[in-house]
Design brief:
CATH architecture: 3-Layer(aba) Sandwich
Order of helices and strands: EEHEEEHEHEEHEH
Number of helices: 5
Number of strands: 9
Strand order of the largest sheet: 1-3-2-6-7-8-9
CATH superfamily: Alpha/Beta hydrolase fold, catalytic domain
Number of domains: 1
Shape: globular
CATH topology: Rossmann fold
Largest sheet: 7 strands, mixed
Helix content: 25-40%
CATH class: Alpha Beta
Structural class: alpha/beta
Distance between the termini: 31 Å
Length: about 210
Amino acid sequence: MLDTEFFPAKQKGSRRLMVVMHGLGDSSAGFHWLPQALNLPWMNFLLVNAPDPYYGGYAWYDFTGDADAGVRRSRKMLFELLDEQRKKGFPTEQTVLSGFSQGCLMTIDVGTRYPHLFAGLVGISGYVHQPERLELSPVAKQQRFLITHGFQDPIIPFAVVRQQINGLKAMGLNISWHEFVKAHNIAGETELAVIREFISAGYSSH
């Protein structure tokens, strides 16, 4: 069972939900600023802690050991979390799944495999886990992805990720790719504006 923090929408009765996954060594507390910064009054936020303790924060998988086992376990836990949100009245088609760094990897991993259509998937400064072994759900090619990365990222090399994303596009995935002059972070309002616009577009058809 994943530990979460819920921030309700200002707009009462909204069923729209953004699930936010942090990066390595961080926690849900690292994204307390996001609901206010995105300024989407109709959006509920669910900030999720990864399962493994890591230097005062948490990790989604052990990148120095058996990463695959960790990713598979986190995937299963996130499937359960999303199923639970559906039961609570937050339908997947009204849900945005998002993550930074390791959280981005989990967003892509879950987004291509979860059997229900999301309102959108937002991955920031991450990479793709075993792209050559990606299993696509029946709705994977209908999912809307926004993937962002920084030219100056010292942790996850830009060129490697761009190549991975081009590979996923070649598989038929619908990915909007945005490059920023940034390191391993979120590029302030410049990037938030792109994310906000992408998220809002996902609800214009509802």
